[in-house]
Amino acid sequence: MEKILDIADAIAHEKGLAPEKVLESLKTAFVQTAKRVIDRNFAFEAQVDEDTKAIKIVQTITVVADDDKRLEDEELAPAYMSISDAREYDDQVELDDQLQEEHDLQKYGRTGAAALHREIEFHIQRLVEDEIYNKYQSKIGTLVSGRVIRVDAKNTTYVEIDEIRAILPMKSRIKGEIFKVGDHIKAVVRKVNMDKEHGMLIEISRTSPKFLEKLLELQVPEIGDGSVIIERSARIPGERAKIALISTHPQVDAVGATVGVKGVRINAVSQELIGENIDCIEFTPIIELFVSRTMSPAIISHVEIVKDSEGIDEKAVITLPADQKSKAIGKSGINIRLASMLTGLNIELVENDQTTNETTNEIEEVKDGVDALEALFN
């Protein structure tokens, strides 16, 4: 087992791993091999000689009393020796001392070599997987990009990202999206799982609100440098989204900076999201005002927050003119659903008998038009 330190360094360099972690994995592989080819009940330890760069396997035997019950246990006995037997070798031995006996795996020929090869391969692969797992576990919620390498019969998309393969399930794709092999796509890391049968599984998503936030961060410098903060976001993927923004700088308009000149910034993000409409709202800690803003484009008359028995905000009762109700609800209920998601409150709409100035002006314009027509024909 010569120059094991050189082997550890070579593997670490090739796999991009820390040399000390590789060495620990190799030592574990040697111990497991010893258990396989010598005796699984022995207590082995792998020791590295810094001078020779070699590794040796040492069996550790603990000295116990003559009447210790562990000596009678078939499985435990190999790891222990009675003090009477131990003193036949060394009369200075005391209870709980540990004796060591060295073993040479090379004596076990091809069987030992094959077993050691399998163990090293297994433990190094586990180390590589652990490193990748930790790397992508820390990337949950961050933006990644990769190339589509396969789309299966269930429309699950497999994407190659750096050294790993991630999956984009059908449920995590925006409605209407179609990918083909070779396409480059962006997504956020949704979760990372370690499965005994299939190994590591990295799932990415394009429907998460976090994906919208990361695209905005990429497109809007003020969000990237922290001048504008995305306080909250809500999406109905492929349809519409609402984001609540707050400025940390008195001279920066949060909504204006995010939208950009002539909407160039927000339109670029919308294009990546297959035409998803994005409403930008200025966040405020005044909950009634915030609820009112989330109901845009509807004009709201009054907002009342109803609390539960524990004093926690539970529901928002919104009073609005009758002609604004359809705007408040939105097509297929999209607007009120997004407002509820953004505020975290159930929303109840109550109509009053008033009409908005906008509607009144429209009615007056129609009446003027009718009067003009009547005068023309009369």
Helix-strand sequence: HHEEEHEHEEEEEHHEEHHEHEEHHEH
- Going across the biggest sheet, name each strand in turn: 5-6-7-9-8
The proportion of residues in beta strands is: 25-35%
CATH topology of the largest domain: N Utilization Substance Protein A, Chain:P, domain 4
- Total of DSSP H or I helical runs spanning 4+ residues: 12
End-to-end CA span: 113 Å
Shape: elongated
Structural class: alpha/beta
Rounded to an integer, what's the Rg over CA atoms? 35 Å
So what's the CATH class of the largest domain?
Alpha Beta
When the domains are counted, the total is 4
The quaternary state of the protein chains shown equals single chain
CATH homologous superfamily designation of the largest domain? NusA, N-terminal domain
Describe it.
The protein is an alpha/beta fold. It has 4 domains: 4-136, N Utilization Substance Protein A, Chain:P, domain 4; 146-203, Beta Barrel (OB fold (Dihydrolipoamide Acetyltransferase, E2P)); 208-283, K homology (KH) domain (GMP Synthetase, Chain A, domain 3, 2-Layer Sandwich), CATH 3.30.300.20; 294-378, GMP Synthetase, Chain A, domain 3 (2-Layer Sandwich). The protein contains 12 helices and 15 strands. A 5-stranded mixed beta barrel has the order 5-6-7-9-8. Helix 1 (4-15) crosses helix 2, helix 2 packs antiparallel against helix 4 and helix 9 (287-294) packs antiparallel against helix 11 (334-343). The longest helix is centred in the first third of the chain and has 29 residues, at 109-137. It is elongated.
